[in-house]
Amino acid sequence: MISLKSSKRSEDVKYYKGEVFVTGVSNQRFASTLYRIPYPFNKEMATSTVEIWHPVHGEFETRAPIIRHLVKEANGEAHLYAVYGCTPLVRFPLASLKDGAHVRGDVIGELGYGSNPLDMLTFTSPFDQKEYLLVTIDVRSASQIAVADLASAPTEPTGVPIDFGPGGLGRTQRNLPIKAEHIAVLNPKWAVVIQRHPKTSYRLDLSTIMIPYFFERKDGMSEMNWPGGPDPFQYRPHVHELDHM
């Protein structure tokens, strides 16, 4: 049985090629900790501690936890990509995250300050067939960044004055109007969201939204909602298809 006795708080759990990756905060000297746990479970577990240069705070941090993460491969090498609070995008070579290692991640983007990531996922756009990283954020628009740019993005400088961003890949991001508590990709055309009703904040709705638009047009006032109105994004055929699923 595996126990995370040293952990005070777990932030995110992801599965990748026979391993479960758990991020969180421990009570060790370096607080931000990452666990690699083989699956099916056995008694083995690799524990590494991580730190980053936080551009908005202007300092190296070991206490800041990884809030959301995922693992992607590029050019034959796998990296763990993480988003922290306030919201630096960080890259860790997966091979460096060994048991007992202390690893400094490369900050490759600052998505904006004063906010926290909610979900981190990838999708393929039906427009250009390219894969994109999507990070939804609690008080700002969601960020879309090309996956192809993640592995090659240069590291942001360290030891410099506070930078409120956006910086690095944050300057290339496309802002998307996603206001969801949580989001998951259902299939190549649709995502599922848990979201608060726009006029009744205490009500939670489960909805489907189209990829790559990522918004529900019926929630707002738009001439495209009226019968016979314009439909430049082919919204109606998508909705008709969903009604018959």
List keywords for this structure.
mainly beta, six-stranded mixed sheet, five-stranded antiparallel sheet, 18 strands, 45% strand
How would you describe this protein?
The model has no long low-confidence stretch (mean pLDDT 88). 4% of the residues lie in helices and 45% in strands. It is built from one helix and 18 strands. The protein is globular and about 65 Å long. The strands form four sheets. Strands 1, 2, 3, 4, 5 and 9 form a six-stranded mixed beta sheet that branches. A five-stranded antiparallel beta sheet has the order 6-7-8-10-14, with no helix packed on it. A four-stranded antiparallel beta sheet has the order 11-12-13-15, with no helix packed on it. The termini are far apart. With 245 residues, the chain is mainly beta. 28% of the residues are buried.
